[in-house]
Specification:
The protein is built from two helices and eight strands; from the N terminus they run ββαββββββα. With 114 residues, the protein is mainly beta. It is extended.
């Protein structure tokens, strides 16, 4: 609590999402009472972080090493509960890569062709 400060969110380690198994810890809250309100289940404390939007990516690797990643999704919450997910996410266009050498190659291409 000393490092994260308040407000923060106390969540059960398992199933603490979408408004379930979590409590907002405000200034002056009794931490023992807050912890007991979660049934004494093992819990983690998360800092409240201001952000413009929440995005997520689902990716998986199979036992054979094959990798798949799906479109970046944008999540919208209401009352700490996921309301809907938009795919693909509304993201700003990616700027072109910075040129790194006298031949005008991008950093990635320079590494690959070295």
């Amino acid at each position: 609590m000393g490092q994260l400060g308040r407000p923060s969110i106390l969540k059960t380690r398992r199933f603490g999402y979408d408004g379930k198994g979590q409590v907002l810890v405000r200034e002056g809250a009794d931490l023992a009472v807050t912890f007991r309100s979660l049934g004494g289940a093992p819990a983690i404390l998360e800092a409240v972080v201001p952000f413009a939007k929440e995005i997520s990516v689902v990716a998986a690797r199979g036992r054979d090493g094959q990798f798949a990643a799906y479109d970046v999704c944008e999540n919208t919450h209401e009352n700490h509960i996921l309301k809907f997910t938009r795919a693909p996410a509304r993201l700003a266009p990616k700027p072109p890569p910075k040129r790194s050498d006298s031949h005008g190659r991008s950093p990635t291409r320079s590494i690959i062709s070295a």
